[in-house]
């Protein structure tokens, strides 16, 4: 199992290429990411404004097995939008 931790990234294509290079075909990828309230401004919003945009990058090379969204309905200013995805890397054609 390999764990990759990334923070704010402005070259998402480079991050994407590096992550998929670490995984063999039919290897698994687990993504767990949270977002601040989406109606607020936050660092990186211009690159990845929401969980759907994040998953778009990885769906190019991974078939999703499970996707789970969690939204905390409490009225707080903390990170309240979570996405979890388990995917398997597609075989190259």
Secondary-structure map:
Elements: H1 12-21, E1 28-35, H2 51-59, E2 62-71, E3 81-89
Antiparallel strand pairs: 1-3, 2-3
Explained architecture:
By secondary structure, this protein is an alpha+beta fold. The protein has one domain. 20% of the residues lie in helices and 29% in strands. The protein contains 2 helices and 3 strands; from the N terminus they run αβαββ. It has a 3-stranded antiparallel beta sheet with strand order 1-3-2, covered by helices on one side. The longest helix has 10 residues, at 12-21. The chain is globular and about 45 Å long.
Short recap of the structure:
By secondary structure, this protein is of the alpha+beta class. The chain is 20% helix and 29% strand.
Beta strand %: 25-35%
- Placed side by side, the strands forming the largest sheet appear as 1-3-2
Radius of gyration: 14 Å
Please work out how many helical segments DSSP would assign.
Answer: 2
What is the total domain count? 1
H/E series: HEHEE
CA-to-CA gap between the ends? 25 Å
Counting DSSP E segments of at least 2 residues, the number of strands comes to: 3
Shape: globular
In terms of per-residue confidence, which ranges show pLDDT below 50 for 5 or more consecutive residues? none
Structural class: alpha+beta
Indicate the mean pLDDT.
83
Instruction: Indicate the percent of residues in helices.
Output: 10-25%
